[in-house]
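Practice problem: ABC transporter ATP-binding protein
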Amino acid sequence: MQILTPHLRHYRGAIVGAVITIIIAAACTLIQPRMLQYILDSLLKNDRQAMFRDSIILILLAVIGVIAGILNVYFAAKIAQGTTSDLRAQTYRKIQSFSLSNIEKFSAGTLVVRLINDMNQVLNIVMTTFMQILRIPIMMVGAFVMGIVTMPRFWWVQIVMLVAVAGVIVLTFPKLGKLFDGFQKNLDQSNMIAKEALQGIRVVKSFNQQEREAKNYDAVSDQMNTLNIKIGYMFSTLFPAFFLVCDAGITLVIYLVGKNIVNAPGELAAITSYIGYLMQLLFTLAFGGMTMAMYARGFISLGRIKEVLETKPDLTFDPNAPKQALSGDVEFDDVSFAYPNAKDETLKHVSFKVKQGETIGIIGATGSGKSTLAQLMTRLYDPTAGTVKVGGVDLKHVNESSLRKAVALVLQKALLFSGTIADNLRQGDRKATPTDFKWATDIAQASEFVEQYTDLYEHQVEERSANLSGGQKQRLSIARGVVRKPKVLILDDSTSALDARSEKKVKEALEQKLNDTTLFIIAEKIFSVMDADRILVLDQGEVKAFDTHEKLLETSELYREIYQTQRAKGGEAK
Ligand SMILES: Nc1ncnc2c1ncn2[C@@H]1O[C@H](COP(=O)(O)OP(=O)(O)OP(=O)(O)O)[C@@H](O)[C@H]1O
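Answer key — structure tokens:
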């Protein structure tokens, strides 16, 4: 609950309102059986004036109780909506601060479930807290005391019933908690499966995998179903058990008092009132039980959100690092790197130095560590050993915005966000103007298709950029990378969907318009990098050679081999 406390502070007024209205509503409910007793007494004594007065009071109490109840729901909803929305924003900000490995450890699917489903459970418990949590003790103590005051000799009936209901709760609740926990984990999994299958719907359909995906989903769905049935089964026995205790108590009192009612008719009013209190007590207990069941579920959700909030981002930027204009010099000094949970190192003792303005090709077989190298240059991960420097500054001590300003990474998989083209380009530079958009899209060879849209940069990019071709997506993501005029630009196989002519034009434009920028071109095809100033040859995470194309042909056996193999396949034609 402590993760909610800072947010609750913002709703002090509504909390006071909720507490006052709940006390008023509970008090009104508690006085009603007593008023009924007075009315019956007056009826038996034929005191019409008292009966009329008490009936008016009873109606007034009921009206006040209803108004207080309505206001209580209003205040409780205000607190619950407000705190949950603040907590959701805090959790989302926290997730944004996570490193890639933090996100991989949780998995994106469970983070989404925590933000939506678990947050709804939290909303329920906050709402219930301010509607019920104070009401339950007030009603329990109040109905218990009023019951004893009304018929002192039956105090033990209430005790017996309290013990019976407490027994039911103790027996069932630990089990319910476990079932809710399992249900939540299944929900995470089903969400992950559905998300993956829907995002990859083209692959699923083209490989005719609908049946397999449906079976995967069915398996998790069946588990959820089983758990749901078990939860339903527990509830279906829990409530009859509560009501059984309730009815047994009432029957017992009627039997005990009924025996003497002929001798003491004056007790009729008291017994009516007593039964009223007994019912209030037992219904409050039953309701309390239901509330606790909801709490059991809500607390598990709260725990899952707490886990996110308490996770320390395993890569943070020093907030006191001075802002500076970093140059495009890049240095790797004996860098090794292993992904979290991976046994082997992906990069091993990588060392090289690059001067601002150089064009560097990075070549290597699939899985040789090229993208990993790029991700270390942008500090998406920290090296396990060694140092990465940009502009002479160790990235572990760099100012975050200085690094982001200096280095742009255009990913292998072009990812655009729904919104306008301008929104996407502004992710590269918040202050970019239409003139900057034109400059960047010209370099990325994107102007030719953007200018066909009547609304130009205001053209909408649909969810998962479904209305753009692979090549168009790549061009726009290159434009997003260049728009900030970075000192270091990394193209991670990001021209693969471009035809040879466009790829050549992009490179020429980059050389002309960003000639002061250090350019890294990552590729598997040697012909994409052989014009670079120098080429770094990676093999299983190790730098095998680093030189010009001509020198590498002379000195590097591996490079020569790649070159000859690709030339034999006709790659040079490209
Ligand atoms: N997030 C990750 N967690 C664990 N291992 C990873 C992760 N990303 C990549 N790897 C592993 O690291 C190795 C290098 O991957 P990387 O993507 O850097 O290779 P690459 O040379 O860019 O390959 P490609 O040309 O196919 O893109 C691979 O064996 C890959 O399985």
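Discussion: The domain at 5-310 is CATH 1.20.1560.10 (ABC transporter transmembrane region fold). Students who identified this feature from the tokens alone can consider the problem solved.
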